[in-house]
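Chapter review: from sequence to fold.
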Amino acid sequence: MSIIHDCLNALLHPSARNDALTSARHRAFIAPRLLGSLVAFAAFPVYLAMRGAPTAIEVAALAWLVAPILLSWFLSRTGHYEGAHVLSSLALTGLAMSLAVTAGGMETFAAIWLVVVPLEAALSASRRVVAFALVLALSCTALLIVLGQFGTLPIAQANPLPGGGFTAIAVASATLYAAGLAFASESLTRTSFALLNVEEDRYRLLARNMSDVITRHGRDGAVQFISRAAETMLGTQLTALIGHGLFDRVHTADRPAYLTALSDAARGGQTHSVEFRIRRDTPTERRPSDFIWVEMRCRPLERTGLAAAVSEPEVVAVLREVTDRKVQEQALELARAAAEQAEAAKTRFLANMSHELRTPLNAIIGFSEMIAQEDVLMLNAARRKEYAQLINDSGQHLLSMVNGILDISKMEAGNFEIAPEPFDPRVALINCCSLLALKARENDIDLVTHVPEDMPLMTGDPRAFRQVALNLISNAIKFSEGGGEVTVSAAIERSRLVLRVTDTGVGIAADDLNRIGDPFFQAGKTYQRRYEGAGLGLSIVKNLVALHGGELTIRSKIDQGTTVTVALPLAYTPIAKATESEPASNIATLSSRAASQYQDNQVKRSA
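The token string follows.
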């Protein structure tokens, strides 16, 4: 059987070999015709030897036996299945007409075979071929009737077999031929269903085992089919997603984009892609959020034939979770923003340092040169003392800037060491206000202090606490206009010391407030600064407060003043040390950066 199957496959046209159903139809057309012709040719010499010289009817029958071989050759060379059935209908009709005209018309046995012509055409599965065969058989029947009425046909020959046996043989042969056609039709139908089931099983298997979710949507976007992978992706039953259940889970902000993609795909006939968030019922450790990111690629459902004309447009979509990719994209965006901020910080650093370093260095060089030339300039002792004091002040200013840069570097690297010990915060604040009282008077600023006398001791780094207070108070004085007021207050709230420094100065713009505390950042335009400074004061304060486990908040309005609030725990808790598997420096660096990020969020939240 395999040899016969291979031979039949070799006779198929190349266009019919790629589709299983088309191949089965072509084989069903070629095989019986070749087999019938070969059997007839094998039996025809024996028949002639027993019968003698053939009659006209027998010659016509022999000609019809040759026709199936030609039809099989035609289908094998061209692949035109409907055309082969049309030629087969013509050949069968021609044989029946030849026999009927020769034997005497409608009363002969040959006319019965005209009934078989439409039945044979039904195997083509084409309405056009069946209609053509029906019209052809009816036309031949009408022609035989007309010819019989006008007496142009020969007189029907006597039946050579008794009792109408020849007619019985003709009817039986036609019935057997029709039965063969019925069995062939049933075989093709069974093959079609088998192939359909195989295709359905294959697609069902793919749909069940794909990690991507496959959906089919109606014209209104309602889900008509959804694959089983949705249960794993969304953590819910498929019945809850049919209809508008899937749409109800889409994030409210992403629903317009979701519906637009489905509508464009149904109307435009092209593939559309959209990313949106969708709710998941059972968050996992890997996806703790209630919403996950999904990418949906949708395209119109392709239909052919009558289904395309009568059915409404539908859309097929493939959904794939892209949460990990979105997280990576967000991480890349944060990294890009951090790189841009680092570049901007470097630019600000160079711009600020070019001014802050050049001014004291010019003073140091200029006044030292004047002292070196005191003989020429005839400097007295008072003038030399004044110049030496200016040189010392400039050097102290440079030392303060360098120390600030070094402190920032240590804090960013996580190497800034906290030396906790008990101290009196009231005494520290009073000392800081006393140190800056002269500067406040020189700027015509009223420095007001409200510190309770019964404040308890706190545990922390007293040097860092004083540096926080000095930086905040000096900034408040520096950015306040003459006649203004700076208020320093402290209070105990629960287990924290709350320090507030309020001024009536120039204030900070809302856009700049979110960036206050970044190293080397100064509010306002960099090249139009009215106040000296490298922009390190609040950055140092922010990091020192974070290292103590405290919180920093800033509230400010332009031309109305600024309030900086620092909340520090009364009992300092050291940052957890590194484990054996992680270097201590890395843990300290991460803790410092986490604390710095936390303070950034606190500052932005208060703004």
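Two observations follow directly from the output. The longest helix spans residues 165-209. The chain has three domains: 2-204, 211-321, 417-606.
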